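[stage:ingest] chain + small molecule (2-acetamido-2-deoxy-beta-D-glucopyranose)
[stage:ingest] validated
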Amino acid sequence: MWTFHGAHGSKCPLSVWNQWRWVYYAAVVCLLFSPVRTDEACPSSCICARDSGTVTCRDGEDAEVPGDIPEWTSTLILRGRNISTLQRGAFMANGTELQVLTLSLSYNGIQVIEPYAFLGLARLHVLDLSHNQLESISARAFHGLVELRSLYLNRSVLPAAAAQLTHALSTQSLPNLHRLELAGNRLRSVPLVRLDIYNLHALVLTNNSIESIGRENVTNFNQQRRMRVYLSLNPFRCNCELEAFYYWLKNSSQCPDAGRLLCSEPEAKRGVPVERLRGEDVDCMNENLEAVSYVFLGIVLALIGVVFLMVLYLNRGGIKRWLNNIREACRDQMEVYHYRYEQDSDPRLANVAV
Ligand SMILES: *[C@@H]1O[C@H](CO)[C@@H](O)[C@H](O)[C@H]1NC(C)=O
Ligand SMILES: *[C@@H]1O[C@H](CO)[C@@H](O)[C@H](O)[C@H]1NC(C)=O
Ligand SMILES: *[C@@H]1O[C@H](CO)[C@@H](O)[C@H](O)[C@H]1NC(C)=O
Ligand SMILES: *[C@@H]1O[C@H](CO)[C@@H](O)[C@H](O)[C@H]1NC(C)=O
Ligand SMILES: *[C@@H]1O[C@H](CO)[C@@H](O)[C@H](O)[C@H]1NC(C)=O
Ligand SMILES: *[C@@H]1O[C@H](CO)[C@@H](O)[C@H](O)[C@H]1NC(C)=O
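[stage:predict] done
[stage:export] tokens:
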């Protein structure tokens, strides 16, 4: 208004309009581009691909998660960054929630995951934590990942953290988990207490140290009909403890790599596919029968021993007599010998005596 009015009254309206016009254009340009420009800022030492929504940060000096991850990021890849501790709210540096769907944190030397480390990632679908050195995993580590479908922890969990992992996975934080990969972690048992709190379709436990899978686990597998369990490269001990598992392998189609499960013990069955064992090999009745027969043998031997002792005892009179007889006989023999010896030893003495 003021400008317009001024322009009317002015002798030189065009020059004034020109002056203000440039300010106006500058303002419009600033307004249009300023939010885009902050949005497009890429964290230092990262590569940003806006089209695919991917931010990749490799081999930085930083020991932390970058704080200024763009809002549009849907895939965030951090790798080789020596993040030793994943702190509480590590991905909420500015208190804003990220819309990240895929988060890859493999090869970062992560040792500790603090409680609520993934807070603010409510939409996360895929979390890859493979190839780290996890020593400590909080029971609330995965809290808030309600949409998580796939969790990869291949070759990442050190033995010290295996029990903690069980806790972290058990606190009903992952209701939509479809795929859990735990290959190469030297796990000795199935690290899940229950299965009904997830929606698991695939449980990958290949290349671990699982020797046996008990009846309880098999029952739980059976109840999760949709679930597939991958178990190759584990050192199975093929004795009768494996019976329920053996029949599950043969009966159900829940183990896609069933043909590649091998016995590592006992020595005689090393390298034999678990599936190819015979029913007798894992039959506890068989094994029990064997044990029972040994017990019987022992009892029979003991009985024979007792009978022998009884015979000895009952015959003690006869034996005593017999022993006495032997002793007498011996003594007689000795005396005769002694006498002869004395006679032969010194003929002169004998003469003197006579
Ligand atoms: C987030 O916070 C950091 C400092 O804490 C700041 O440098 C950065 O600009 C902030 N990013 C956003 C998107 O607000
Ligand atoms: C990783 O960071 C820790 C401290 O946070 C440091 O002690 C260690 O030397 C670093 N390792 C490498 C390979 O940079
Ligand atoms: C391990 O995790 C990776 C994801 O980083 C995945 O692609 C791979 O198939 C997993 N499984 C095994 C057995 O390595
Ligand atoms: C199995 O896991 C160990 C680490 O636990 C690794 O060194 C080895 O290469 C893995 N083997 C296969 C066949 O993946
Ligand atoms: C598997 O077996 C272990 C050891 O017997 C047990 O602690 C765990 O709860 C079982 N898990 C499932 C899902 O059956
Ligand atoms: C399934 O397993 C049971 C033992 O649990 C066995 O008696 C039965 O014969 C098996 N069925 C088939 C089709 O193999």
